[in-house]
Amino acid sequence: MNNLSFFHSTFISNYLPGIMKIFNVDEIRKADAYTIVHEPIASIDLMERASTQIFIWIKEHVNKTNKIHIFAGLGNNGGDGIALGRMLAIEGYTVIANIIRYSANISEDFQINYNRLLEISEITITDINKVDDIGDISSDDFIVDAVFGSGLARPIMGFIAEVISKINDSQAIIISIDVPSGLYADESSFSKKGEIIKADYTLSFQFPKLAFLLPENDVYVGKWEVLDIGLNQNFINSTNTKTHFVVEEDIRPLLKVRPKFSHKGTFGHALLVAGSYGKMGAAVLASKACLRSGVGLLHTHIPKSGIQILQTASPETMLSIDRYDNYFSEVPELEMYNAIGIGPGLGMEHQSQMAMKLLIQNTTCPLVIDADALNILAENPTWLAFLPKGSILTPHPKEFQRLVGGWSDDFERLDKQKKLAQKHNIYVILKGANTSICFPDGQCFFNSTGNPGMATAGSGDVLTGIITGLLASGYSSGISCILGVYLHGLSGDISADEIGYEATTAMDIIDNIGLAFKRLY
Fold first, then answer.
1. 78 CB-near residues (< 8 Å, 6+ apart)
2. From the CA atom positions of the chain, what is the Rg in Å?
3. Helix (H, G, I), strand (E, B), or coil: what is residue 128?
4. pLDDT tens-digit series, residues 306-320
5. What is the mean pLDDT of residues 39-53?
6. What CA–CA distance (Å, rounded) separates 224 from 200?
7. CA-CA distance, 413 to 48, in Å (whole number)?
8. Containing H/E element for 509?
9. CA distance 368 to 298
10. CA 19 to CA 356: how far, in whole Å?
């Protein structure tokens, strides 16, 4: 094991031992099989356990006045569906079980549950041999999609595609079991050209699927939740994966306790290089966010035209003043700083680019690189090889595209993100819903906080400030990324709860960083 792999496996075991893993389909099958052998439990009883969790969820979310149409395939996903139908009918729900007869091959556990279903007089069972066999579905009804699970082998075409198309056109609320039928869990569905269920809710067993976290699948997945079906925890803990989903329980152990006799020097000294004529607001936002992150001292290097603006808006920020009035052109003395953030509102002047090159050449501090600094790197890609160890890039998708070129789907985009981090021994944060963080060793962490209200000007500048402050105050690059992204999203969530998505601004996010810390503590 190389040093990086050892470091990050140690990072996971020491700091995030309970982190939610994202397994591929093959690993999930192994978890099922291991549980069946070592619990031990019969596969039909494990299916019953899984169906019970879906049943509990539906009881909490669906009224008995709503009719429920279950569409079941002939494999184990269909077995989950008809077991659920039996439970719902016994509970007093009006249930129509639609069995899609697309094959003569039926899984053993499906057949057992189908035989059990035949004993329930309260349920209507309909065999679907052609799309016209489907009865009327009201917009007030609910549909449970149990046609195909995560083991899909080929795109859905022909008769079954017609069924799925009719389900999608029904206007009913659609709940998919484990994964929307037709969606590939571990690769892009874009090029497959098959029909896919467009679920309103997806209830995944034990783990989220990687496909749930990528933008291209939002229209199919809807809101997703993970239901614990009791797969063997020893198998889960001992099986390595490089893909993870970060939730609040993972973040709390990362936070440092402030010593009683600490002082401002205890928490590091950050430098931000930000702002240009007409874009001083970015420097203000990054500076305020950096100070809210807990850093001890902050200098912000700005052009002369921004002095009054920044000193008025953020009196706690010390200024490093460029010789030029309107843009960044020179590198200040760097010895005193523990971390450096660069990019918010920087501009693309030639002298700014040359000054950034000097900064890269003359510091050993990790850099947090955002906004125009990323665009400068995109125009000068050879500079990537000289970034200090532990540096962090924080692009949004368009900035990332300028760095790495285009992609055909979001799986390819994620692969490019991983490769960029590995090639240059850096951390790459790709901003967006479920912001992804790629480590130099190939580990990838998806964030659970944040909301559409954060799609607003200056939100990225706030993230740069937070991460720079955490890094300067003594957190490692990896923890600064994970903690910073989580806090940024949580602050945005608190803002949205208070004033809604549309009204949330970057300054609102800054104002709620303290509450985000308090919630974690």
1. 72, 99, 100, 107, 110, 146, 147
2. 26
3. strand
4. 999 999 999 999 999
5. 98
6. 8
7. 38
8. helix 506-511
9. 14
10. 37
CB 267, CB 353: distance < 8 Å: no
pLDDT, average across residues 314-339: 98
From the centroid of its chain, how far is CA 518? 23
Which tokens hold the place of 317?
Answer: 């920020």
Cβ atoms 371, 388 nearer than 8 A:
no
Residue 133 is given by DSSP the state: G
Residue 271 phi, psi dihedral angles, 5° rounding: -120, 130
H, E, C per residue of 28-83: HHHHHHHHHHHCCCCHHHHHHHHHHHHHHHHHHHCCCCCCEEEEECCCHHHHHHHH
Tell how far CA 84 is from the center of its chain.
30
Q: Which two tokens stand for residue 504?
A: 């949330």
Handedness of CA 424, 480, 339, 378 (dihedral sign): positive
What three-state secondary structure class fits 240? coil
- HSE-CB of 272 using CA atoms within 13 angstroms: 40
CA distance 332 to 123: 76
List the beta bridge partners of residue 260: none
pLDDT (tens digit, 9 = 90+) per residue, 359-414?
999 999 999 999 999 999 999 999 999 999 999 999 999 999 999 999 999 999 99
Q: Which CATH number fits domain 23-239: 3.40.50.10260, 3.30.465.10, 3.30.420.40, 3.30.2000.10?
A: 3.40.50.10260
Q: What are phi and psi of 273, to 5 degrees?
A: -110, 110
User: If pLDDT is split at 50, 70 and 90, which confidence band does 5 have?
Assistant: very low
**Sequence ranges of the domains in the chain:** 23-239, 266-520
What band does 19 get if pLDDT is binned at 50, 70 and 90? confident
CA 179, CA 514: separation in Å to the nearest integer?
A: 37
Q: Whose structure tokens read 């009791």?
A: 230
**pLDDT, tens digit, 9 for 90 and up, residues 493-502:** 999 999 999 9
Does 208 sit behind a cis peptide bond, omega within 30 degrees of 0 on the bond before it? no
pLDDT at res. 433: 96
Instruction: Tell me the pTM.
Output: 0.95
* Residue 292 structure tokens: 């809210």
Tokens 């619990």 sit at which residue?
39
Q: Which helix (H) or strand (E) holds 266?
A: none
Domain 266-520 matching CATH 3.20.20.110: the answer reads no
**Which residue type does 300 have?**
T
Q: Which two tokens stand for residue 368?
A: 């947090």
